[in-house]
Amino acid sequence: MRKVLSATCLGAMATFVVGVAYANEELIKMSQNPKDWVQPAGDYANTRYSKLNQINASNVGKLQVAWTFSTGVLRGHEGGPLIIGNIMYVHTPFPNKVYALDLSQDNKIVWKYEPKQDPNVIPVMCCDTVNRGVAYGDGKIFLHQADTTLVALDAKTGQVVWSTKNGDPGKGATGTSAPLVVKDKVLIGISGGEFGVQCHVTAYDLKSGKQVWRAFSEGPDDQILFDPDKTTEHGKPVGKDSSVKTWQGDQWKIGGGCTWGWMSYDPSLNLVYYGSGNPSTWNPKQRPGDNKWSMTIFARNPDDGKAKWVYQMTPHDEWDYDGVNEMILSDQQINGQDRKLLTHFDRNGLAYTMDRATGELLVAEKYDPKVNWTTGVDMNKSSPTYGRPKVVDQYSTEKGGEDKNTKGICPAALGTKDEQPAAYSPDTQLFYVPTNHVCMDYEPFKVSYTAGQPYVGATLSMYPPPGESHMGNFIAWDNKTGKIVWSNKEQFSVWSGALATAGGVVFYGTLEGYLKAVDAKTGKELYKFKTPSGIIGNVTTYEQGGRQYVAVLSGVGGWAGIGLAAGLTDPTAGLGAVGGYAALSNYTALGGTLTVFALPQ
Amino acid sequence: MRTIWLIAATLMLAAPGGTAFAEATDPAAVKSEDGKYLDKEGNPTFKVAADGTVDWYTYSGYRRYHSECHVCHGPDGMGSTYAPALQQSLKTMSYGDFLGVVASGRKNVNTAQESVMPAFGDNPNVACYMDDLYVYLRARAYDAVGRVRPGKREDKPDAYTEAEKACMGAK
């Protein structure tokens, strides 16, 4: 594959799929070549791990900026570029431009795609106009635009091959997440949990863009694609109407459960994994019941969308702890037994290790010791509350009720981690996790639903845990024991996706704008460089012309940019206290730039 | 209720010059009607007692702001990477212009920025609380309340409760 690609570059791509049954076989082969970065997370398992080792723990300190590229867009830049052969594909937030750069020709722009979108979509994006990147498959680049248009571009020319509409922005549905190409389909989620959208994952035919199946997060069994007898939770069939009976009346129709996180895929089990977000509204009193299947890990068959197993992590959410964060797939031994594992760092502050074939829960532990809303998950298999988190009354906004300000809840609604993806290194068998270290006061109150208008229903204020001033940590996590191995303090939340490499180095970005390299074993900081703006993008690596490069998008924004720009306040300070904690705006300003690093030649 | 805001918005847009900078008017409360304080021109305003007790509207505006507005304009009106700060805005923006912008939205899309504020005239969670938001942000503009949740407040006035019910109930 590599030879074909480098010999004839992209010209080969369209024809190469001949004789290959499915796009994923092509993708699996391509992602085994560490010189490329063919999927948003590097591979189907979402490991964000690269076998490249030219840059290693002993030389990373000499890293230099090799080249830079301005995206021409100011808003928050999440995600990262794809690298396929000589071409790098760089995406931007709204207006969702895509650039194809030729790495073999001085990073010249080969083509540029810029859609025309109604700017009225901007204010219905809850947390900035972010986009988490494009996907490749079958000679096409797939992009989910802000206005929910899913577009397939010819990877060679940037011409539109097909486009389809995935939702109605007039009702608050927007596109922010990266698609996943599986077999002959492209799968995509949708955003809009703060607008009462009934969210879903939808599969489109790679060639035609025709919808093949759509699986809602909540609703009747035929809408959520559950088989009441075969879809299981904790090994038991969920039964009929498992979702609708956990909502009052028709509330599931505006139930949220959005699907804007990263998806992963296990080809041998033929299962796709993703999580669903918060139930709408944020006021728990207004939606009695468990609100299934919001806050849920789904394992679905990509052929027909049918759910094999599910696990609802936070039944009846009271804190906006979306369950959308990525599922990282690893094959490891537990107690001497080979296990196919799924590891998930949830917004609710718990890290879950599961058997990804069966959905069996193996480990559920706090990955920030400050997490206080729960005393932990009931791990007793014979208990009627098996798998449920035990909620501490003091931090229950449901118990507190409407118009009552529940104080000191950790983590904040931002979660102990948000969308910023973690990395897994098979060398160390550790997970490298960018985290938030922020707590909150949360006061729910009654709201009324209007289509296309925010449907929030809670006031909240955020601040670091009492007695501390840092708002983030970058940690190494052992998923087998559920323990933190090392933890580095960061002044702000770490809102950048991590990268682990065979060079024994782990990379991540910070909100001030630093790209940092740390030792994978110890966490010792080995290198840092301040890029032009705060980093909420994910770090990527590739090889070109015999040199290893490390690339990251900077461009501060996202929820972090909204919440932290002006600095957090100390709610216990007296009237008139100003800026109790560091303000991000004192460190960085808007601006989208790709910065690419390499060792000096 | 919503019809009223839409009419108000239309009037604002029709006014020559659009949103103009007005002279700052003295925000001091000169009278109160059913728990709502008014300045000498009859516009809603804040009242903060010496012990820090705030009027109901300031308190309610704090809550509504941090539900509906802060997701773009940042906590405490301080602005964000996404939308401008509002902390100083009500020193120069008139009550009428404020209602107009909130009800009808505002667009500022050009090569340098892509700021779009939606129209909230149709959203009872905002439209029913216009005065609350105005009073809270006005209090912020004059540093009458800081970057914290108001600690002590006056009770919710009975007339307010009735008006709120009528407005939120109007589907």
Q: What attributes does this structure have?
A:
heterodimer; A: 601 residues; mainly beta; five-stranded mixed β-sheet; 42 strands; B: three-stranded antiparallel β-sheet; two-stranded antiparallel sheet; 6 helices; disordered N terminus
Major sheet description of chain B:
3 strands, antiparallel
Biggest sheet of chain A, open or closed, and with what strands and sense?
5 strands, mixed
Q: Helicity range of the residues of chain B?
A: 40-55%
Distinct helical segment count of chain A: 6
Describe the strand arrangement of the main beta sheet of chain A, using strand numbers.
1-35-36-37-38
Number of helices of chain B: 6
* Oligomer classification: heterodimer
Trace the largest sheet of chain B across and list its strands.
1-2-3
For the secondary structure, the number of strands of chain B is: 5
Overall SS class of chain A: mainly beta
Classify the fold: give the CATH topology of chain A.
Methanol Dehydrogenase, Chain A
Overall tally of structural domains of chain B: 1
Low-confidence stretches of chain A: 1-20, 572-580
Q: Characterize the overall form of chain A.
A: globular
Pfam families (chain A): PQQ
Disulfide bonds (chain A): 126-127
InterPro entries (chain A): PQQ_b-propeller_rpt, PQQ_MeOH/EtOH_DH, PQQ_rpt_dom, Quinoprotein_ADH-like_sf, Quinoprotein_DH_CS
Biased composition (Basic and acidic residues) (chain A): 227-243
Explain what this protein looks like in three dimensions.
The complex is a heterodimer of chains A (601) and B (171). Chain A has one domain: Quinoprotein alcohol dehydrogenase-like superfamily (Methanol Dehydrogenase, Chain A). Chain A is built from 6 helices and 42 strands. The longest helix of chain A has 9 residues, at 23-31. Chain B has 171 residues and is mainly α. Chain B has one domain (2-169). Helices cover 40% and strands 9% of the residues of chain B. In chain B, the strands form 2 sheets. A 3-stranded antiparallel beta sheet of chain B has the order 1-2-3. Chain B has a two-stranded antiparallel ribbon with strand order 4-5. In chain B, a hairpin with a 2-residue loop joins β1 (31-33) and β2 (36-38). The longest helix of chain B has 18 residues, at 56-73. In chain B, 47% of the residues are buried. The chains are: A mainly beta (601), B mainly alpha (171). Chain A: It holds the Pfam family PQQ. Chain A: This is Methanol/ethanol family PQQ-dependent dehydrogenase. Chain A: Disulfide bonds join 126-127.
